[in-house]
Design brief:
The chain has one domain. The chain contains three helices and no strands. It is an all-alpha fold and about 80 residues long.
Length: about 80
């Protein structure tokens, strides 16, 4: 598998998980403010909310993978307008 194929598949897997946990948490991925809140501030009660904590971690992971792709000269696909 080439580097491009690896990144494309990895991003697709992450996106599926993000969509899954966003649905569980009631977070509309098209609502940029809601997603930014998930990224900026894990709430105090999130320790008991595994789905929301997972969503936060997956969003952070996606940003890191996007950064790696950009560093390699690749363009990551959008996630719901992002």
């Amino acid at each position: 598998m080439s580097g491009i194929e690896h990144y494309v598949e990895e991003l697709a897997q992450i996106d599926r998980e993000i969509e899954h946990y966003a649905a569980i948490c009631g977070v509309d991925l098209a609502d940029h403010d809601a997603v930014k809140r998930c990224l900026k501030q894990p709430h105090g009660d999130w320790a008991d909310d595994k789905a929301r904590a997972s969503l936060h971690g997956l969003l952070v992971l996606r940003i890191k993978v996007e950064g790696e792709m950009i560093a390699e000269g690749l363009v990551p696909r959008e996630l719901n307008g992002w």
